[in-house]
Design goal:
Blueprint (H helix, E strand, L loop, with lengths): L2 E6 L7 E6 L9 E7 L14 H9 L3 E5 L12 H11 L1 H8 L1 E11 L1 H10 L27 E5 L5 H6 L2 H10 L7 H7 L11 E6 L8 H10 L7 E5 L12 H15 L11
Parallel strand pairs: 3-4, 3-5, 5-6, 6-7, 7-8
Antiparallel strand pairs: 1-2, 2-4
Length: about 280
């Protein structure tokens, strides 16, 4: 029997997550967690219902899943609410670990499309404090992490924001998220772009669907190429299907993602890396 528990991590109606817990026997120990971050090009009309089938499937396969909702562009998100919510939502697991026997040393993220961007971005949060932001943007600096991601499975993630803006993906969704093009707000792009946090010291599987017409494969390929010289190079994984096969629990594309989540959770607990001031 899958248990479901909904918790808020802030006062806004979009600041919540739902924890899906697998059935387990007494004495089986603490559970690793997959943070499910939905896509929708960061726009308010797409919500956590996109991640619910994935969270349920993960729980049915023995993984605790935290289906995370967050403010998006159009309902209080964008710059900088979306970014603050993702970090605060992940950190909420620190409060839930005791009551639900969660292993905070094994927290990974599974993010689709814009959620893939946010998942990989959050994995590099320790680097964000060193970025030089304009005075009006400095309140968005990442606070000290209570929960750090031990790995990420990005599902056709938008992993190169500047490149996505050049391609004008989804009617300039990146400019809508950040408030303009890179030429006008370069500091925001440095802060928000996963490329700027490379190299990472956690594993990233950049999974991309072969027939993806919504987020071109170059988004994942460019990120992987840029990170190859790092201590833990990201890996590109190509799967069959289109953009939405990745969030279809019955599709081969999604099943491969679930396998990668399980692989990350089986890995030894990572040693904490040095913080970057």
């Amino acid at each position: 029997m899958i248990e479901r528990h909904r918790y808020s991590y802030g006062p806004d109606p979009s600041q919540w997550g739902e924890l899906f817990l697998p059935a387990r026997r007494a004495g089986t120990g603490s559970l690793g967690v997959a943070v499910v971050i939905h896509g929708g090009y960061w726009r308010a009309k797409y919500g956590a219902e996109l991640g619910e089938p994935l969270a349920l499937d993960l729980a049915e396969h023995g993984v605790a899943a935290w289906n995370l909702e967050y403010r998006r562009a159009g309902n209080g998100g964008g710059w900088h609410g979306t970014f603050q919510d993702i970090l605060a939502g992940i950190d909420k697991l620190d409060e839930l670990a005791g009551p639900h026997s969660l292993d905070l040393g094994k927290v990974v993220a599974l993010g689709h499309s814009a959620g893939g961007h946010l998942a990989v971005w959050a994995a590099g949060r320790d680097r964000l404090g060193s970025l030089d932001l304009p005075e009006e943007d400095r309140e968005v600096r990442a606070h000290h992490a209570r929960v750090r991601l031990a790995g990420v499975v990005s599902q056709s993630g938008v992993l190169d924001l500047a490149g996505a803006e050049r391609l004008r993906l989804s009617d300039r969704a990146v400019a809508n998220l950040l408030g303009g093009p890179p030429s006008d707000i370069p500091g925001r792009y440095r802060y928000a772009d996963p490329m700027a946090a490379l190299p990472l010291d956690v594993p990233v599987f950049a999974v991309h669907a072969e027939d993806d017409d919504d987020v071109p494969p170059v988004m994942s390929a460019a990120y992987v190429d840029a990170g190859l010289s790092g201590p833990v190079p990201p890996q590109l994984v190509t799967v069959p299907g289109d953009h939405f096969a990745l969030i279809d629990p019955g599709a081969e594309a999604y099943i491969r993602c679930r396998e990668l989540v399980a692989e990350l959770l089986r890995r030894p607990r990572p040693a904490p890396g040095p913080s970057i001031p």
